[in-house]
Design brief:
Blueprint (H helix, E strand, L loop, with lengths): L34 H8 L5 E2 L1 H12 L3 E8 L3 H4 L3 H5 L4 E7 L10 H14 L6 E4 L8 H12 L3 E5 L6 H12 L7 E5 L6 E6 L4 E4 L2 E2 L11 H7 L8 E5 L3 E5 L3 E7 L3 E7 L5 E5 H11 L9 H4 L4 E9 L4 E5 L3 E5 L2 E9 L4 E5 L3
Parallel strand pairs: 1-9, 2-3, 2-5, 3-4, 5-8
Antiparallel strand pairs: 6-7, 7-8, 10-13, 11-12, 11-14, 12-18, 13-17, 15-18, 16-17, 16-19
The protein binds guanosine-5'-diphosphate (GDP).
Length: 361
């Protein structure tokens, strides 16, 4: 009887839902991994759960003395920063790993972003032992992250937690590439009692950590649009901010995803931080309705014309005081930096949350 060299399960080719499954073609190979371990080793299959399950999972950590590594997406911070982590992980220490640094302009100093992350976390009464800016794409600061974990873990268990899509698997992949010995089995899995979900323990030479399933975030845009549109919306490389001098009664379309109406205020500049694949198009407020009707799904895409039929739009009016710089955020899409006193009406699709915050940049 052959066993998987990853988890030790007896290999079988009859039932894919049972442990130890491997395709018939591979079962006679030496040193074979079951399908599950194979996926884990390549670490890019989603291991996602819904919120209720997730909360149950986190509450298990609450009773332990552990170090939590909370991974968030810098480009979608508020949507992916989970304040309930503080409650659910009890008194445990925490490191924030703010990922996708490569998407923000290089010209912005890291310490500014770190201070901003700390400030945003403090607003939720959340104190992190350390904030590390990483990029799983360029591999920036992966070593710093690992060093911080080793420094702060002090022999305790280390849990990686985060929403789906923040790049948790990519970071783990990057750590595995850097710190694992190809010839050694580094991954073991164990079920979480009361669920069918797994904690995945990853043992490296100097340290080990436990990956928890990614919580599925129901506010993420991904749930409303097709893959082509999502690919255009999610930035892949450093965002080139677009600075526009606007007068009141002007409108800016962010493709067909959002409409920014400058209702009141003196002439001023606004900076648009969105994927380089989205169109930032200025027009007069009085022409905006007809432009949208003519160009939706054409010039103003994404969304595609087919997607429009299933989408609903909503608006909010926001007043800015001009005393500080603020970001008007469209969760999952991007943000607009505003420095002057003004009144803005913003319209976007349901599922995208509109809010303002102190400016990141
Ligand atoms: P998970 O669901 O948290 O495990 O996230 P994944 O690792 O699957 O990544 C989600 C998406 O974000 C993928 O398209 C990745 O290529 C992308 N991604 C992950 N990390 C980074 C990063 O540091 N920079 C950029 N630009 N993209 C990233």
């Amino acid at each position: 009887m052959k066993k998987c060299i990853g988890c030790g399960a007896i290999l079988q080719s009859t039932d894919e839902s049972r442990e130890g499954y491997i395709s018939e073609k591979l079962i006679d190979r030496d040193n074979a991994y079951c399908l599950r371990c194979h996926r884990l080793r390549n670490y890019n299959e989603n291991n996602e759960v819904l919120k209720e399950d997730y909360l149950k999972i986190l509450s298990k950590i609450c009773n332990e003395n552990a170090l939590i590594v909370h991974i968030v997406d810098l480009f979608d911070f508020s949507n992916t920063f989970l304040p309930q982590i503080k409650r659910l992980t009890g008194q445990n220490d925490c490191i924030i790993c703010a990922n996708k640094r490569d998407l923000l302009p290089k010209s912005v100093k890291d310490y500014k972003i770190i201070n901003w992350v700390r400030h945003m976390a403090n607003l939720d009464d959340f104190k992190a032992l350390d904030v590390i800016l990483t990029s799983a794409k360029t591999l920036d600061n992966i070593t710093d992250l690992v060093e911080s974990i080793i420094k702060h873990s002090k022999g305790r268990k280390v849990y990686f937690v985060g929403c789906s899509n923040v790049g948790k698997s990519s970071i783990i992949n990057a750590i595995l590439k850097k710190y694992s010995d190809e010839n050694k089995d580094v991954i073991t899995t164990s079920n979480i009692p009361g669920t069918t979900l797994d904690f995945i323990e990853i043992n490296l030479e100097n340290f080990s950590f436990i990956d928890t399933p990614g919580v599925f975030n129901d506010k993420q845009l991904i749930n409303n649009l097709g893959l082509d549109s999502i690919n255009k919306i999610m930035p892949k490389k450093e965002i080139k901010p677009i600075n526009l001098q606007l007068e009141s009664k002007q409108t800016v379309f962010i493709s067909g995803l959002a409409r920014f109406d400058f209702l009141e205020g003196d002439k001023t500049s606004f900076t648009f931080y969105f994927s380089n694949d989205l169109l930032i198009h200025r027009t007069k407020l009085e022409n905006a309705d007809s432009l949208f009707d003519r160009q939706k799904g054409a010039l103003l895409t994404p969304p595609t014309i087919e997607e429009y039929d299933n989408l609903k739009y909503y608006s909010r009016v926001l007043n800015f005081d001009g005393l500080k710089k603020y970001d008007l955020v469209l969760s999952g899409i991007g943000f607009i930096t505003i420095k002057a006193k003004c009144k803005i009406k913003i319209t976007t699709i349901e599922g995208v949350v509109i809010y303002s915050r102190e400016a990141l940049i």
